[in-house]
Design a protein that fits this description.
Helix content: over 70%
Structural class: mainly alpha
Number of strands: 0
Number of helices: 8
Strand content: under 5%
Largest sheet: none
Length: 138
């Protein structure tokens, strides 16, 4: 599935709403089932999650690595500056809005407000579990 993510990022379609539709068409064609088969059945039968969940997971991993990284790194310093400018209304960042939205969807908006993640590995495990749980519900 990671080759799909690379392909989408390479084409600049990372904001496209049709990820899941494209993935479903591909999977249904692969399994040779009718298009009327429920999407949940296709994902469940193949033990695959919608591609948007993998993208959200990677976005949050990257955000967490910046937040928990060394405070002296250039990426951390630039992130803090960008975050402050975004909160002050000087800068509009779609990436920051996406991170905030995904954290809110997962019920972790407190992490956005505090900008403090204690453990990179535990955060990743929790996020992965939450995303997989929400993927099963859809």
């Amino acid at each position: 599935m990671s080759h799909f993510i690379v392909w989408f990022w390479g084409l600049g379609l990372w904001k496209c709403w049709c990820w899941t539709q494209f993935q479903l068409k591909y999977l249904k064609m692969l399994v040779k089932c009718k298009s009327c088969i429920p999407n949940v059945m296709v994902f469940g039968e193949l033990c695959v999650y919608p591609i948007e969940l993998a993208i959200k997971f990677r976005m949050l991993n990257f955000w967490c690595s910046i937040v928990t990284g060394k405070q002296s790194k250039v990426s951390c310093i630039l992130y803090k500056l960008m975050f402050r400018m975004h909160n002050d209304g000087v800068l509009h960042s779609n990436w920051l809005l996406s991170i905030q939205r995904v954290l809110k969807e997962l019920g972790m908006s407190h992490l956005w407000l505090s900008q403090n993640v204690y453990s990179y590995s535990s955060f990743n495990n929790i996020v992965k579990r939450y995303l997989q749980d929400t993927g099963k519900v859809k």
